[in-house]
Amino acid sequence: MSEERREDNAGKAAKSGIWYVISNVMIRAVGLITAPIYTRLLTTSETGYANNFNNYVSIFYVLMGLCLIYSVGRARLDYGKEGPGSRNEFDAYMSAIQGLSSIFGAIVLILVIFFSPSGGMLGFEKPVVVILFTYLILFPSIDYMQYKLRFEYRYKENIAISLFITIATVLLSILLILKMPDDKGFAKILGTVIPSAIVALICYAALLVKGRCLVNIKYWKYALLIGIPMIPHGLAMILLARIDVSMIQNMCDYSAVGLYTSGYTIGSLLMFVTNAVGNAWVPLFNERLDAGNIEAIRRDNKILMEAGCFMTICFVAVAPEIVKLLYAKSYHESMFVVAPVALGTLCQYFYTNYVNTEIFYKKTFLIAVNSCIAAAVNIALNYFFIRQFGYIAAAYTTLAGYFILMILHYFTTVHLLKKKVFNDGMYFLMIILTIAAGVVTGALYGTVIARYAAALVIIGLLTVLWRKDMRAFFGMLKKR
Predict the structure, then answer these.
(1) 3-class SS at 347?
(2) Burial class (CB in 10 A: 0-12, 13-18, 19+), 314
(3) How many helices (H) and strands (E) does the chain have?
(4) Greatest CA separation found in the chain?
(5) Alpha-carbon separation of residue 39 from 42, 195, 323, 353 (angstroms)
(6) What is the domain partition of the chain in residue ranges?
(7) Using CA atoms, how far apart are residues 334 and 258, in angstroms rounded to an integer?
């Protein structure tokens, strides 16, 4: 790829990053605005019924999708290089892995229909179980399309899909809840499933028409070698994110669960921004790593990591006001969960750099091993510290789990794979200092003046230290 083409893609990545952030904020805003509506329309039991369906979607998606989605970025390089007919091969690849996951999903659905108990399973009646597994056949096509669009820098179409699903889901869910007053939990499930299923069918048809390939053993083998080892990773990450709630419920009470999950929801808001930036960065990162342009990776990635640290400190500083704005007074104690959860999100943001490298070199088995280790460590820490210090300790054990995961991925990339891509020493210094600053700021949540004074000092120092990188970043955006 020519240098001019790479610089053009750098501009596309910067522009798409901005729009991904804007769209993610909009989507999250829709969720925050509609949350009070759902709480007035649904009982806690009905909400739990619908949320339980969504939880099983998350879990079984990892299994039924075979984690083939993780192969797309690398396949874009191997099957999408410049040359006659090369783009058609990548299109064929996307169509083929879609065929593989849907065929596997159909087999699972048949087994469920014939062998599941007549009364249902997983806490659902059998028709709902069938809807669940039918939905899981279609749903991966949305991800395939969105990943394809991401790696082709087509952010407008990508964002349009997300916004349509979000808005259509809200409108249809409310309509069906009002029309089905005797089965509102099921109505909420239908409101979630129908818009996504329609979009999934459109994406499925588009990928199939473009690629014209449903079965291809070469592509299937390629995708499975990358995807299958990621299944334990996907399950471990779900465990790492959700085991806290179960352990708090068993060791404390439902009130503690409510406070923890409320604070966790606020603390994870930052993830909508960091994920958007990361999604925009990965295609450019892969292209540069494929070209051996390590210097450009280090230069631009350093700026992105600095921005992540800066945003996290700002977010932690204002978190109590966010909690007080959105929650009733009885929930204000949950603010003490926010800082460690936000800092854990920052650790995820950092270690994703190493994960992207491992995926690029097709060493996904090592990713799964690291995730399982981190999940096991998190469970052990929870068992000890929740008993000793209560539900807030779970937020800090989650932070510890993600920091340990960063160390493991660093060790894997640098010492096992022998790939020195990033300024590792600087990154660890940045993350440790940011965690320390965030913990100090969080400890001052009870004192507004002291908290903002500490935050302003930290933000001022970061602005002075990183002023050149900030100017370079905004200058690049202005040029593009």
Answers:
(1) helix
(2) middle
(3) 19, 0
(4) 66
(5) 5, 21, 18, 38
(6) 42-228, 230-480
(7) 9
